[in-house]
Amino acid sequence: MLVAKYQRKVARLLSNLLPDVAEIDDVTQDAFIKAYRSLPTFRGDSAFYTWLYRVAVNAGKNYIVKQSRRGRARSLAENTQFEGADSEDKLRDNQTPELILLSKQIGETVDAALEALPTELRIALTLREIEGLSYEEIAVVMDCPLGTVRSRIFRAREAVAAKLKPLVESPLGNKHG
Amino acid sequence: MDDTKQQLSALMDGALEDEEILSVVDALATEPELQAAWSEYHLIGDTLRAQGAPAVEVTERVMAAIKSIAPETSGADAAPSLTPPKPHKPHKPLSM
Question: pTM of the predicted model, to two decimals?
Answer without folding.
Answer: 0.74
